[in-house]
Protein backbone atom coordinates (compact mmCIF):
# COMPACT_ATOMS: atom_id res chain seq x y z
CA UNK A 1 0.00 0.00 0.00
CA UNK A 2 1.43 3.38 -0.95
CA UNK A 3 1.25 6.11 1.66
CA UNK A 4 0.03 9.54 0.64
CA UNK A 5 2.41 12.32 1.61
CA UNK A 6 5.31 9.89 1.99
CA UNK A 7 6.87 9.42 -1.44
CA UNK A 8 8.84 6.20 -1.77
CA UNK A 9 7.30 4.62 1.34
CA UNK A 10 4.90 1.69 1.49
CA UNK A 11 3.01 -0.03 4.27
CA UNK A 12 3.41 -3.80 4.32
CA UNK A 13 1.56 -6.16 6.69
CA UNK A 14 2.65 -9.72 7.41
CA UNK A 15 0.59 -12.52 8.95
CA UNK A 16 1.49 -16.00 10.10
CA UNK A 17 -0.61 -18.66 11.81
CA UNK A 18 0.14 -18.87 15.56
CA UNK A 19 2.28 -21.86 16.45
CA UNK A 20 4.21 -21.90 13.16
CA UNK A 21 7.90 -21.18 12.70
CA UNK A 22 6.93 -18.17 10.61
CA UNK A 23 4.89 -16.78 13.51
CA UNK A 24 7.84 -17.22 15.85
CA UNK A 25 10.05 -15.33 13.38
CA UNK A 26 7.57 -12.44 13.18
CA UNK A 27 7.40 -12.30 16.99
CA UNK A 28 11.21 -12.11 17.12
CA UNK A 29 11.22 -9.25 14.61
CA UNK A 30 8.57 -7.41 16.63
CA UNK A 31 10.51 -7.88 19.87
CA UNK A 32 13.73 -6.63 18.27
CA UNK A 33 11.99 -3.60 16.78
CA UNK A 34 10.42 -2.76 20.14
CA UNK A 35 13.78 -3.12 21.90
CA UNK A 36 15.47 -0.87 19.36
CA UNK A 37 12.75 1.78 19.57
CA UNK A 38 12.75 1.91 23.38
CA UNK A 39 16.50 1.62 24.03
CA UNK A 40 18.02 2.87 20.81
CA UNK A 41 20.42 -0.08 20.90
CA UNK A 42 20.59 -3.69 19.78
CA UNK A 43 18.69 -6.25 21.85
CA UNK A 44 20.70 -7.78 24.71
CA UNK A 45 19.17 -11.25 24.63
CA UNK A 46 17.64 -13.55 22.09
CA UNK A 47 14.29 -15.23 22.55
CA UNK A 48 14.88 -18.96 22.38
CA UNK A 49 11.68 -20.89 23.02
CA UNK A 50 8.23 -20.91 21.49
CA UNK A 51 5.25 -21.61 23.74
CA UNK A 52 2.38 -23.84 22.54
CA UNK A 53 0.35 -20.79 21.49
CA UNK A 54 3.21 -19.56 19.29
CA UNK A 55 4.47 -16.82 21.61
CA UNK A 56 8.20 -16.58 22.10
CA UNK A 57 9.59 -16.61 25.61
CA UNK A 58 12.94 -14.82 26.10
CA UNK A 59 15.96 -16.75 27.26
CA UNK A 60 17.21 -16.02 30.82
TrEMBL record:
Q: Where is this region: Disordered?
A: 38-60
Give the compositionally biased regions (Polar residues): 38-51
Q: What is this protein called?
A: MmyB-like transcription regulator ligand binding domain-containing protein
- Species of provenance: Streptomyces maoxianensis
Amino acid sequence: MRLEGAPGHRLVAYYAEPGTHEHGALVLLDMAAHELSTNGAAPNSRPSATTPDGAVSPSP
